[in-house]
Design a protein that fits this description.
The strands form five sheets. Strands 1, 4, 5, 6, 7, 10, 11 and 12 form an eight-stranded mixed β-sheet that branches. A five-stranded mixed β-sheet has the order 16-13-19-17-18. Strand 14 and strand 15 form a beta hairpin. It is α/β, with parallel strands linked by helices. The protein folds into two domains: 226 residues, Alpha-Beta Complex (Spore Coat Polysaccharide Biosynthesis Protein SpsA, Chain A), CATH 3.90.550; 156 residues, 2-C-methyl-D-erythritol 2,4-cyclodiphosphate synthase (60s Ribosomal Protein L30, Chain: A, 2-Layer Sandwich). Helix 5 packs across helix 6 and helix 10 packs parallel to helix 11.
Length: 392
């Protein structure tokens, strides 16, 4: 069997989808959309290259590795270009030279099946050294040509088809077609072969292999994936916990607010135990590790740093995972000092950094009635719950 390389095109700006996160990184079910799109390629590919926006290459690489969906198939991530054809050319250049058949798939098609990818590969092989294949589904509706706000013709839909991805090519066919484009701009890769005078064969596509384009498409896809996993996976919750020793000579900072007290919390940063718990809760909600992983306690860059600055970075991590913070609830456990007078300011500080309404932030304080390290005044601890929702 021919060796198959696959290119997943995930470098678009996705302006029609709306929201602050590119659609390919928005979460459907429990994973970003582009990770779902990878799944149809893995069973048939000997190597995969993901083409991502230049400023999101590391993010995409981390999400692919974390998902584990590619198993033992080697996966590379490269930066895309200004046009689709530029991105595909960069992906093609990144594939090993022994890949004889190349599949090109859109990150915006998360529902394609491995069986469809397999049909495309088989048809390319049958087509020989100049093979080029696209999946096509019939047009179910009447199609009319419209000009200046009026119908000018009704088209014969029996000779029309809706083209999908993954599309397949012999490597030489795709490389030659892309090189011959010059300044011409194409909307799919098969069009490049057409313009070069090549023949493009068709295989039966899949009605469910829809392209996610608009915000409404995203919502429909979320419902579809959420139903598949049996939950509303657009909403996720994490928990956080932290404990720091109380020592003389340190400021006591909680949720970014300095609280007058004879002791402060020991730590490499400002040791804001409450904010640390919130950070871990939010990282947990998006399965992004913990604060020690992102902000190592021995790193000089974080010595004495405000934990609110670190919380801002956690919010950015949440955003790059395709989510937005929706609420936090934190409980501070300490015998002394009395924290009730400072809680309104703590809530305001957290709400500002998290970018949520004040009503979405809860801060509470309690004691252990003299029990444990908190009860003896040896330490303070905090527990937090953080909720996120897939970004719109």
């Amino acid at each position: 069997m021919a060796r198959v390389g696959a290119i997943l095109v995930a470098a678009g700006a996705s302006t029609r989808a709306g929201g602050g996160t590119a659609k390919q990184f928005q979460v459907l079910g429990v994973e970003p959309m582009f990770v779902h799109a990878l799944k149809c390629l893995v069973p048939v590919a000997d190597e995969i290259v993901v083409v991502a926006p230049a400023d999101a290459v590391e993010t995409a690489r981390g999400l692919v590795l974390e998902s584990g969906v590619c198993g033992t198939v080697p996966v590379g991530v490269v930066a895309g270009g200004a046009r689709r054809q530029d991105s595909v050319a960069r992906g093609l250049a990144a594939l090993r030279g022994d890949m004889e058949v190349v599949l090109v798939h859109d990150a915006a098609r998360p529902f394609a099946s491995a069986e469809l990818a397999r049909r495309v590969v088989e048809a390319v092989v049958v087509g020989g050294e100049r093979g080029a294949v696209v999946p096509v589904v019939s047009v179910p509706d009447t199609v009319k040509r419209v000009d200046a706000g009026a119908v000018v013709a009704t088209l014969d839909r029996s000779v029309l088809g809706l083209v999908q991805t993954p599309q397949g090519f012999t490597r030489a066919t795709l490389a030659d077609a892309l090189a011959a484009l010059g300044d011409a701009v194409v909307t799919d890769d098969a069009q490049a072969v057409e313009l070069a005078g090549g023949r493009v064969a068709v295989v039966e596509g899949e009605p469910g292999n829809v392209k996610v384009t608009t915000g409404a498409d995203l919502e429909t896809a979320r419902l579809r994936l959420g139903a598949a996993v049996g939950l509303d996976a657009s909403v996720r919750v994490g928990i956080g916990y932290d404990l720091h020793r109380l020592v003389p000579g340190r400021r006591l900072v909680l949720c970014g607010v300095e609280v007058p007290f004879e002791k402060g919390l020991e730590g490499h940063s400002d040791a804001d135990v409450a904010t640390h718990a919130v950070m871990d809760a939010l990282l947990g909600a998006v399965a992004a590790g913990d604060i020690g992983q992102h902000f190592p306690p021995g790193d000089p860059a974080y010595r004495g740093i405000s934990s609110l600055v670190l919380l801002e970075r956690v919010v950015e991590i949440v955003r790059t995972r395709g989510f937005a913070v929706r609420f936090v609830d934190v409980v501070i456990v300490a015998e002394k000092p009395r924290l009730a007078p400072f809680i309104p300011q703590m809530r305001q500080k957290l709400a500002r950094v998290l970018g949520v309404p004040l009503g979405a932030v809860s801060v509470k304080a309690t004691t252990t009635e003299g029990m444990g390290p908190e009860g003896t005044g040896e330490a303070m601890s905090a527990r937090a719950v953080g909720g996120v929702r897939a970004a719109r």
